[in-house]
Amino acid sequence: MAALRLIRTRAIGPITFRQLMRRFGTAGAALEALPELARRGGGRAPAVPPVRDVEREMAAVHALGGRYLMIGSADYPALLAETDSAPPALIVQGDGALLSRPMVAMVGARNASAAAVRFARQLANDLSRQGTVVVSGLARGIDTAVHVGSLDGGTIGVIAGGLDIFYPPENERLQREIGTRGLIVSEQPPGTEPHARHFPSRNRVIAGLAQGTVVVEAAPRSGSLITARLAADYGRDVMAVPGSPLDPRAQGCNQLIRDGATLVQSAADILEALEPFGRNHVGAPAPVYQAGHGASDTGERERAAVTALLSPIPVAVDEIIRQSALAASDVHLILLELELAGRLERHAGGRVSLG
Fold first, then answer.
1. What CATH number does the domain containing 18 carry?
2. Domains of the chain: total
């Protein structure tokens, strides 16, 4: 209950949640510390959802046949837990055993060509028949094709909204079927309509769950390429299906291959690329939060030194640690205080800026 209240607090994202848990040991202790942390950061503590709101959410999840997977627990997906931005809580519906099997993500264009749709469906079917679970985002086009192709062998659909929201609407039947025969994964509470900001978050879960990501047709600057970039950032394999240089939908895949992605023509190419990773590798054990250290004795001098290094331009936290000459733990605590006070924003790649 306390952990979910902490997670649903607006100012607390995945990185902040982990830092709070590592420092204070329990969600209850972290909640109690929020006002003092925010005061030290020069602002007011963020509003924490009341218990009744969290109880209402939990009841809605249960009514939908869903359940929570909390980071740090044995059933949380281990590969996803290895990523810095792993959601503190996942809501899942369906066959959780799929999370313990090898997983490959497959994504691509929503307005995919008929040939690409057919190829993606067959590729996903071949992979699933050989014991690999196929992960995608239940979008139109390639995502839909790979879910249909892998439904019998094992598929996971990561959605941007709540379990009770079907997007796109024409995939309602498919989503319901995956929720029964496969697994639906969401980090949003029931009733959440998917908005633009939710899709990059969904993409990081797709990339984080899988040992590698395959892209089948993608225009430049598409969401599929964001997923591929995230997979590369996580140290996972990036693979792509080549296409005609005359088709704009193939430009993203061809560029990925030019930049070093594995060229894919069959399921065998994917399995061969993943072999060094280990077909049965499911990541390190999920993190267990130890007894925390509480607040430190950092003072105004240290806080001023860190704040002086910040600006509206994002900068790497490691650079702040280097230039401030302070202990990493002290810098992280000061940044945490500033964030809880509403004065700091976090960005991809471990960067921060003044809010």
1. 1.10.10.10
2. 2
Q: At which residue do the structure tokens 């899988």 appear?
A: 210
Pairing mode, if any, of strands 103-108 and 212-216? Answer: parallel
Q: How high is the pLDDT of residue 54?
A: 97
CA distance 312 to 307: 11
Residues 93, 144, single domain; the answer is: yes
pLDDT at position 297 is 58
In degrees rounded to 5, what are phi and psi of residue 298? -60, 140
First to last CA, the chain: 30
pLDDT (tens digit per residue) in 234-283: 999 999 999 999 999 999 999 999 999 999 999 999 999 998 765 444 44
DSSP string, 254-311: HHHHHTTPEE-SSHHHHHHHHGGG-TT---SPPP-PPPP-------HHHHHHHHHT--
Task: For residue 343, give its domain range.
Answer: 2-49+296-354
Q: Which of 307, 316, 318, 319 is nearest to 344 (CA)?
A: 307
If one compares 160 and 281, the residue with the highest pLDDT of the two is 160
What is d(CA 77, CA 70) in angstroms, rounded to the nearest whole number?
Answer: 10
Cis peptide before 168 (omega within 30 of 0): yes
Give me the chain's average pLDDT, please: 92
Q: In Å, what is the CA distance from 35 to each residue of 48, 301, 338, 348, 352?
A: 11, 21, 12, 27, 22
pLDDT higher than threshold 60 for residue 50: yes
Residue whose entry in the numeric block shows the structure tokens 């399921």: 267
Q: Which of 153, 125, 154, 158 is nearest to 139 (CA)?
A: 158
